[in-house]
Amino acid sequence: MAAGTPSLDRVVALLRRLPGIGPRSAQRIALDLLLRKRALMPQLAEALAAAHRSVRHCSRCNNLCEDELCSICNSGRRDRGLLCIVESPADLLAIEDSGSYVGEYFVLMGHLSPLDGIGPDALHLDLLEQRLQETGLQEVIFATNSTLEGEATAQFVAALVPEGIRVTRIARGIPMGGELEYLDRSTLGRAVQGRGTLDF
Predict the structure, then answer these.
(1) Domain boundaries, the chain
(2) What are the DSSP calls for the chain, one per residue?
(3) d(CA 137, CA 165)
(4) What would the pLDDT profile of 115-133 be if each residue is shown by its tens digit?
(5) What is the pLDDT of residue 199?
(6) Contact 82, 139 (CB under 8 A)
(7) Bridge partners, 140 (sequence order)
(8) Per residue in 74-127, pLDDT tens?
(9) What is the predicted pLDDT for the residue at 50?
(10) Is beta strand 139-142 parallel, antiparallel or unpaired with respect to 166-169?
């Protein structure tokens, strides 16, 4: 940034530490806040401080919430026999937005990645093991990402599921509206291997 603006430089440096924000984007956001949306800055600072004080992990599913239990764990309308394991709160929100799932969740807050120094200790597996011992659990659904890390995480965590509980993986393959000729070989191969009965 320009000389003599250490406060602005610090804002840019902090914004750059967020995922998906490079040097130019960080500079653009900081300048936009200062030049066009200055009134938003105190509100943003206050909202961030409030979130820092109030947001914590649900004691049951590890999702982000402001109470002891999140709204999903607190609901009496969810199917407690279904437990969907996801990597992040964003993944949970994506499944919820689909409106197709009525069970409960467990949020790992990451995936195994030995190269990045992320091992089993980072995935809150002690809390997950408590959930897996609850009576009435019938199926554990793995909805980790279709990456090498996501697959390795699903395989590792699946070994913790007690016998007698069904273990499934969300379907992978051709997206709705996708054309075969444009799909990569791995996606198409998984779609063929994971084919199901045609329902009319």
Answers:
(1) 14-52, 57-169
(2) --TT-HHHHHHHHHHHTSTT--HHHHHHHHHHHHHT-TTHHHHHHHHHHHHHHH-EE-TTT--EESSSS-HHHH-SSSEEEEEEEESSHHHHHHHHHHT---EEEEE-SS--BGGGTB-GGGGTHHHHHHHHTSTT--EEEE---SSHHHHHHHHHHHTTSPTTSEEEE---SPPTT--GGGS-HHHHHHHHHT------
(3) 7
(4) 778 888 889 999 999 999 9
(5) 60
(6) yes
(7) 83, 167
(8) 999 999 999 999 999 999 999 999 888 999 999 999 998 877 788 888 899 999
(9) 97
(10) parallel
Amino acid type, 7 = S
Let me know: does 65 contact 57? Beta carbons within 8 Å: yes
In angstroms, the Cα distances linking 42 to 91, 121, 123, 147 are 30, 37, 35, 40
* pLDDT tier at 173, thresholds 50, 70, 90: confident
d(CA 153, CA 48): 31
Q: Distance between CA atoms of 71 and 60, rounded to whole angstroms?
A: 11
Q: Quote the CA–CA distance of 66 and 171 in Å, as a whole number.
A: 32
Instruction: Identify the CATH assignment for 57-169 out of 3.40.50.620, 3.40.50.10490, 3.40.50.880, 3.40.1360.10.
Output: 3.40.1360.10
138 band by pLDDT with thresholds 50, 70 and 90:
very high
Rounded to whole angstroms, how far apart are CA atoms 168 and 138? 11
